[in-house]
From TrEMBL:
SUPFAM superfamilies from the UniProt entry: Homeodomain-like (SSF46689), Regulatory protein AraC (SSF51215)
Organism annotation: Sellimonas catena
Entry keyword Transcription: yes
Cited PROSITE patterns: HTH_ARAC_FAMILY_2
Domain HTH araC/xylS-type span(s) in chain numbering: 173-271
Domain of life: Bacteria
The keyword GTP-binding is assigned to this record: no
Protein name (database record): AraC family transcriptional regulator
Keywords on record: DNA-binding, Transcription, Transcription regulation
GO function terms (MF aspect): DNA-binding transcription factor activity; sequence-specific DNA binding
Length: 277
């Protein structure tokens, strides 16, 4: 396989991750990768080109692409664009799973496409403005979007080849999901391997092959990303943040933060405060 696995961490306080596409400035290519979450790319300005299991899907303004869990995809963004991305963890759909914990959605256009676009635009705008009670409005729009997905876009019949493909990547997705939910604990490779019935060496090879990284680096990346959220959204000290997210001390958190984001946590906080003044 050799494709990169992406771990989805929701926005703080919400059961999803919503953000502006990082390739908004153009000259951007995201190589083949996969994740357990459902993902929607909604294009409002400019164009994007998706490749899903080698099939090409060009998008223009007013169109979106709906990506299934464990679906290998890449995206090409040669020109500037305004695209909003919504990533929805699979457990949101647990009451609608088919066999093997699967749920699949169609890529084909539907009459409800415009409503999906409107809901995503509204959610993104409200999260940016943060007016009083915005959380309830965003949640309301999100649940309406989920209703449309499960009633209008869900595939009722899943083909045998789709099941086989899903099983290949589902094992590691379940493990990375467990890590995401328990990352503050002492999660050694040996501990996680035992929980899922693998030998440590087999689990290590699984990460190298499917996630293209080693277990320790993956775990540290999860901890740093959650730490980044707390750094950006609270006034907690850097030492407190380090301890809240599984690091032994502030020095260890600072080292991993700089490695991932190219800046010290203290410097990031200074820039954030300057931007608000």
């Amino acid at each position: 396989m050799g494709y990169e696995h992406e771990l989805i961490i929701p926005n703080e306080g919400f059961p999803f991750k919503l953000f502006r596409f990082e390739g908004k400035d153009g000259h951007y290519v995201r190589e083949k990768h996969w994740h357990r979450s459902i993902e929607i790319f909604a294009v409002f300005e400019g164009t994007l080109t998706f490749f899903i299991n080698e099939e090409k899907y060009p998008l223009k303004p007013g169109e979106f692409i709906l990506l299934n869990s464990n679906e290998i995809h890449s995206v090409v963004s040669p020109l500037p664009n305004h695209t909003i991305v919504l990533q929805i963890p699979m457990n949101v759909f647990r009451n609608y799973y088919a066999q093997d914990g699967m749920i699949l959605f169609t890529h084909s256009p539907r009459r409800q496409d415009q409503k999906i676009m409107e809901l995503m635009e509204s959610m993104y705008r409200d999260i940016q403005i943060k007016e009083t009670g915005y959380e309830w409005k965003v949640q309301s729009d999100f649940f309406m979007l989920i209703y449309l997905l499960v009633t209008k876009y869900r595939k009722q019949e899943i083909l045998p080849e789709e099941i086989r493909h899903y099983r290949k990547l589902n094992r590691l997705s379940m493990i990375t999901g467990y890590i995401r939910d328990n990352y503050t604990k002492d999660l050694s490779l040996e501990t996680v391997a035992e929980i899922f019935g693998y030998s440590p060496s087999y689990l290590s090879r699984m990460f190298q092959k499917y996630a293209r990284t080693n277990y320790k680096t993956f775990l540290q990346d999860v901890r740093v990303e959650y730490g980044f959220q707390e750094l950006a959204n609270t006034d907690h000290t850097i030492g407190e943040i380090a301890m809240n997210h599984g690091f032994p001390n502030q020095k260890a958190f600072t080292r991993e933060f700089r490695k991932k984001y190219g800046i010290l946590p203290s410097e990031y906080r200074k820039r954030q405060k300057s931007a608000m003044d």
